[in-house]
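S2.1 Query sequence (ADP-ribosylation factor-like 16)
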Amino acid sequence: MCLLLGATGVGKTLLLKRLQNILLKVGTNLTDLTLRKKRVTVRELGGCMGPIWPSYFVDCYSVIFMVDSANITQISSSCVQLLSVLAAEPLQTASVLVLFNKRDLPCTMTLGEMKSLFRMDDIIASAPQSITTLELSARSGEGLQDVLNWLDSLQPC
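Output structure tokens follow.
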């Protein structure tokens, strides 16, 4: 199971729909993706469901945590949510992809700016998880192949 997490409006549903269209699969917030090497079930959990995210952490071997790169007002709360996810005991061995979305918008911060605001170097250095950061435009599809490659490269715990 791979959890797709993030605040409301960051583009989680659009990302899932784009991945489904690429792989010709249909589903709702629980989606099976058939990749080159394996089949991955991705469950999308919205930001308003944050308080119950931990109930889905069991049997989860990877997390995609999406951030809206164009919404400066959401940065601090997204960082707090990410730190909470990384601190969860059941996710200590999970692979984590921090996905900065909406890079196609003119007001979007650069990947370097986002990583600096999140203090990603410090998070990566102190977290037990393997953490990857990528940027994406779920709307245009730019960066989708990188997400698929990351999913395909995962090893179950």
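The chain has five helices and six strands. Residues 75-87 form the longest helix (13 residues).
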